[in-house]
From TrEMBL, chains A, B:
<dbReference type="Pfam" id="PF01761">
    <property type="entry name" value="DHQ_synthase"/>
</dbReference>
<dbReference type="GO" id="GO:0009073">
    <property type="term" value="P:aromatic amino acid family biosynthetic process"/>
</dbReference>
<feature type="binding site">
    <location>
        <position position="246"/>
    </location>
    <ligand>
        <name>Zn(2+)</name>
    </ligand>
</feature>
<feature type="binding site">
    <location>
        <position position="141"/>
    </location>
    <ligand>
        <name>NAD(+)</name>
    </ligand>
</feature>
<feature type="binding site">
    <location>
        <begin position="104"/>
        <end position="108"/>
    </location>
    <ligand>
        <name>NAD(+)</name>
    </ligand>
</feature>
<keyword id="KW-0456">Lyase</keyword>
<feature type="binding site">
    <location>
        <position position="150"/>
    </location>
    <ligand>
        <name>NAD(+)</name>
    </ligand>
</feature>
<keyword id="KW-0057">Aromatic amino acid biosynthesis</keyword>
<feature type="binding site">
    <location>
        <begin position="70"/>
        <end position="75"/>
    </location>
    <ligand>
        <name>NAD(+)</name>
    </ligand>
</feature>
<feature type="binding site">
    <location>
        <begin position="128"/>
        <end position="129"/>
    </location>
    <ligand>
        <name>NAD(+)</name>
    </ligand>
</feature>
<dbReference type="GO" id="GO:0008652">
    <property type="term" value="P:amino acid biosynthetic process"/>
</dbReference>
<dbReference type="GO" id="GO:0003856">
    <property type="term" value="F:3-dehydroquinate synthase activity"/>
</dbReference>
<feature type="domain" description="3-dehydroquinate synthase N-terminal">
    <location>
        <begin position="66"/>
        <end position="178"/>
    </location>
</feature>
<dbReference type="GO" id="GO:0046872">
    <property type="term" value="F:metal ion binding"/>
</dbReference>
<feature type="binding site">
    <location>
        <position position="263"/>
    </location>
    <ligand>
        <name>Zn(2+)</name>
    </ligand>
</feature>
<dbReference type="GO" id="GO:0000166">
    <property type="term" value="F:nucleotide binding"/>
</dbReference>
<protein>
    <recommendedName>
        <fullName>3-dehydroquinate synthase</fullName>
        <ecNumber>4.2.3.4</ecNumber>
    </recommendedName>
</protein>
Length: 359, 359
């Protein structure tokens, strides 16, 4: 097992990464009250819920469960309300803990519920997908979607602890493993050319689900995220770089309707678009762009999106949270392995990029 | 005009208190972006909305408006959603400001929307009722009700600035002015015996709506609140004292149904109950209890509640946010003008108190 810390002063917390982790032992120091609400979904429930309920009950905790339907299309205010209902029906108080057992949707919703319930209760992340292990479970961003935009309503709510167990990835469908690899590749592209070389060496083993390789990829990814979050928790600066591929990706997801493309798939194509625009701006070479596309393709991820009318694509992009004073800002690559947040891009070139990366 | 500061480090903010304040001049330094969403209600809209829209437009801001129905019964997730809809339909971004123009319900809802929209945007409070001027507009507590409990879902979201304009109280119904005086009396009872003496001298003028007296009462009340909030923003300790009368009061409000009793009316009776229990515990004298009842009665506030079945009263009390590890804690008076938060009260005496203060 490897341990990383997200250094946030008195809200410092560990990420435990390994296979067949012991939740009873690892969670005990991080549960402060007597009440734990496990939020999970119908897919994860039959696989892992009993294991966690048993561990928590052995610790003497009062455990309640809220099971949501599985899918990004349920990441909305109606289903968030079900968590509040469950907390109040269980009679839970301000000293309770909300434990997210599931992927990014469950983590985002449970974390937002923890942020809002009684104006804030304790929160623990047990991410069961690769994507949530390397991305959403670390850093405290939580929230829900709105019909007019993704993650438009939310809060910063740091967990007490994160457990990333590779054994739980065995049950993950190949398509979702690939979606997680999109965010892994993102760290390499935005900050770590050596990690890109490592991924190029090991992509076959990662796609095949090798636990040791996955643990290493999760560790390296979380190390980048932990460092960036510690420097810039509220995304005033550097943290925005983690959105490489996301502004284009959010437009694709929003247009397609939540849940049609996986988030990681949209981000994958979004990263190709960011690389494509970076190349048109003259910042990276054509070879760099091809290298970016190649590693994404080897992870079985899409490098182009369906045909989307340009004006609609731009409208969805304009809802992005990185818009400041009405000015769209994009995360692009100044060079391969070095991302920047910039408003100084050519809008005509951006249009070319969007049109060039559609099927 | 008098100015108080809530000392919260880099989130320090001023409360401006006076009559016929100039919003254009006072707000300008505290609006950081170009977009302002005014959240108000159907009662306040015809009285004051145009004045604020004009002031903001003179500052060159893009102004949008979200008008909610008036009343505590609308302080719920459905009506909160209307604010998010308005923000997204206006195309507002992460650098926008949400301005609450109204009473406590509007301030709580607009503040919670500001806390959650894009994970947090700027917020300004323009409280138009006495109750919100002395209580909810200061200190950053925001939120909505749930069918199973009041203010169960919310966030701490400090405003950039608070404008408390006594001129706006001229339009306030007498019943609501009295409800505000309940919270004014609360500060005297919990922390300031000299303020109680001042209120006993000036209650007739306050009830009659004398602007100079009201400004002084608001200033003294906000000074207490600002000091307590600066010491204990997240209510880990001292801030809980501000809930004097509120655990009993919330039970009354919840049982009656939101909006039947005004919050201040329920708190008034709740303070009588807290004083009654404090007297039964031997902490304050019978004369102190009578003095408490007398000042509340002189503010035209109720000192007893309708008949509520005991088990229901206790069930609503157990949903209180001050419950810790299943243990109910109450704010009582160790002596008149000195409140304490305690779990060491006699449950049998509490039962007597509830039964003794019903009509």
């Amino acid at each position: 097992m490897q341990t990383l810390y997200v250094e946030l002063g008195d809200r410092r917390y560990p990420i435990f990464i390994g296979s067949h982790l012991n939740p009873q032992q690892l969670l005990e120091p991080y549960i402060h009250g007597q009440q734990v609400m496990i939020v999970t979904n119908t897919t994860v429930q039959p696989l892992y819920l009993d294991h966690y309920v048993a561990a928590l009950e052995k610790l003497g905790k009062k455990v309640a469960v809220c099971v949501l339907p599985d899918g990004e299309q349920y990441k909305n205010i109606e289903h968030l309300t079900l968590i509040f209902d469950a907390l109040l029906e269980a009679g839970f108080n301000r000293d309770c803990t909300v434990l997210a057992l599931g992927g990014g949707v469950i983590g985002d919703m449970a974390g937002f519920a923890a942020a809002c319930f009684q104006r804030g209760v304790y929160f623990i992340q047990v991410p069961t997908t690769l994507l949530s292990q390397v991305d959403s479970s670390v850093g405290g961003k939580t929230g829900i979607n709105h019909p007019l935009g993704k993650n438009m309503i939310g809060a910063f709510q740091q967990p007490q602890v994160v457990l990333a167990d590779m054994a739980q990835l065995k049950s993950l469908p190949a398509r979702e493993l690939s979606a997680g690899l999109a965010e892994v590749i993102k760290y390499a592209l935005l900050a770590d050319i050596e990690f890109l070389v490592w991924l190029e060496e090991h992509m076959e083993g990662l796609v095949a689900g090798d636990s040791a390789l996955l643990a290493e990829a999760v560790y390296r990814s979380c190390a980048h995220k932990a460092r960036i979050v510690a420097n810039d928790e509220k995304e005033q600066g550097e943290r925005a770089l983690l959105n490489l591929g996301h502004t284009f990706g959010h437009a694709i997801e929003s247009y397609m309707g939540y849940g049609v493309w996986l988030h990681g798939e949209a981000v994958a194509t979004g990263m190709v678009m960011a690389a494509d625009l970076s190349q048109r701006m003259g910042w990276i070479s054509a070879a760099d762009l091809e290298r970016t596309k190649k590693i994404i393709q080897r992870a079985n991820l899409p490098v182009a999106c369906p045909k989307i009318p340009l004006e609609e694509f731009l409208a969805y992009m304009s809802h992005d949270k990185k818009v400041l004073n009405g000015q769209l800002r994009l995360v692009l690559m100044k060079q391969l392995g070095q991302a920047i947040l910039t408003k100084d891009f050519d809008v005509e070139l951006m249009t070319q990029t969007i049109l060039a990366n559609q099927n």
